[in-house]
Design a protein that fits this description.
448 residues, alpha+beta, three-stranded antiparallel sheet, binds zinc ion
Length: 448
């Protein structure tokens, strides 16, 4: 029997990829046999037999095509797509960041009965950076001041942070300091691959040295942190210095917190209701984070009832005339290394009210004392406000307004957009005006 050329279909017949379900089909054996026959034909083995098997393969291929056209076409899904995992549902797009549920209620969410029951017990607190807590009782007045400040310096003194820092600098050898400085060549923070590689290289070179120093620097005596010794000494109570100082700092922080709670209870009574501002700055460059939630949790654990108050514009509004405060006073720069570039900076904590009401009220008093010129008098006698004091006084305005009317004063409310924002007009490009061609009449001398 002469060998004939197989059908064109079989010349390009690939072995289709099958799923586990398809492999169990009865026609699958036929397909596999056909494929083997095709391979045999390719190898020129038993040409006649191959040809017969090729005919068989063609039949099988036709069966397969028929099956594919009926079953798979009904599903309208190609094989490759059927094997794909189901696509994840797309998240609904949110226009704004979802508001997390606050750990405390806002004071404007309370009922009138609750607000009235708190009368005479509220302590208004403004959290800040230098004055960590500036507290004022709602009954405080100029004659009977009921204020309490908890400053950062006080906290540093109680937690002994500065002393510990000085000790650590003293015990650090020059080579360790140089090794730490070498880490600054790269960066492990910036999203830059080159810098991160440099950082890893530098880190790998000094890692052993730093690990030994920070793990195996021991105190000679348990009560002394000045006398240190590399590696463990024969003293039975010799502790690793760095771990000891970290533990001490943690314990001191806890003790300082408890001391603060006791002080607040002593100043404002055990039944005081804390109304604290909702502003905090957890991540601010070159600044220590301002505690927000941790203050509230601490006060709650201390047994106080804690509520939040919205701080919007409270530290920028004059509590006397409701005008806008501005920081116009310049003071020497608190950062000595910046003195050459900026010797004077604006004072953040001291604000002045320059509204006419405040100026007039003070100016009249001053007018009786001195007979100066009016402009000089105004410069001297403008009303100065401590930013924290202005904030807590405005808190009190809000609290009293909520008790009387049920809503906060409009000057401390955020403006709600009533209409959709207008589309911006396209910027008008300044087209070059064509030069006026001098008319022949303009060039004529005036005499004519
Ligand atoms: Zn004012």
């Amino acid at each position: 029997m002469p060998l004939q050329q197989p059908p064109i279909l079989l010349q390009y017949m690939p072995m289709p990829s099958m799923t586990s379900q398809q492999e169990q089909q009865p026609w699958m054996q036929v397909v596999q046999q056909a494929h083997e026959a095709w391979q045999a034909r390719q190898a020129w083995l038993s040409a006649e037999q191959a040809w017969q098997e090729c005919i068989l393969a063609e039949k099988a291929w036709l069966v397969l095509q028929e099956w594919l056209s009926t079953e798979q076409a009904q599903q309208a899904q190609p094989l490759a797509q059927q094997e794909r995992p189901p696509a994840k549902k797309a998240r609904p797009r949110r226009s704004a960041k979802p508001q997390q549920k606050a750990d405390c209620l806002y004071i404007d969410e309370l009922s009138q009965a609750t607000l009235q029951s708190m009368a005479g017990r509220c302590v208004l607190i403004d959290p800040g950076r230098r004055d960590l807590l500036f507290a004022m009782h709602e009954d405080s007045s100029i004659e009977d001041k009921q204020l309490y400040r908890y400053t950062r310096n006080q906290q540093r003194k109680e937690t002994r942070v500065t002393r510990f820092k000085r000790i650590l600098e003293k015990v650090k050898p020059a080579d360790i300091a140089a090794a730490e400085r070498s880490l600054g060549a790269g960066s492990c923070v910036k999203p830059d691959l080159v810098l991160f590689k440099e950082y890893l290289k530098a880190r790998a070179q000094v890692a052993d040295k730093l690990t030994i120093f920070y793990n195996e620097t021991y105190t000679v005596h348990p009560t002394s942190t000045h006398q240190i010794h590399m590696f463990k000494t024969s003293e039975p109570q010799s502790f690793p210095l760095h771990r000891k100082l970290r533990l001490s700092a943690y314990v001191n922080q806890k003790q300082a917190d408890q001391r603060l709670i006791k002080k607040l209870r002593k100043e404002f009574g055990p039944n005081a209701v804390i109304v604290i501002g909702d502003w905090s700055a957890p991540m601010n460059r070159f600044h220590e984070p301002i505690r927000g939630k941790s203050w509230r949790m601490l006060l709650k654990r201390g047994g106080f009832e804690v509520y939040l108050i919205k701080e919007y514009l409270t530290s920028k509004t004059c509590p006397n005339c409701y005008g806008q405060l501005s920081n116009t006073r310049y003071v020497p720069n608190p950062r000595p290394f910046r003195h050459t570039k900026r010797p004077m900076v604006k004072c953040h904590g001291l604000l002045s009210c320059q509204s006419e009401k405040c100026l007039e009220s003070i100016g009249k008093i001053e007018d009786e004392k001195e007979g100066e010129k009016e402009c000089e008098k105004k410069e001297k006698v403008q009303r100065w406000w401590n930013r924290d004091l202005a904030a807590v006084l405005n808190f009190r305005h809000i609290l009293f307004s909520l008790r009387e009317t049920g809503i906060a004063p409009t000057r401390f409310q955020r403006k709600q957009p009533t209409e959709a924002p207008k589309a911006r007009k396209p910027r008008k490009t300044k087209a070059c005006k064509p030069r006026k061609t001098p008319s022949p009449t303009n060039n004529l001398p005036a005499q004519l």
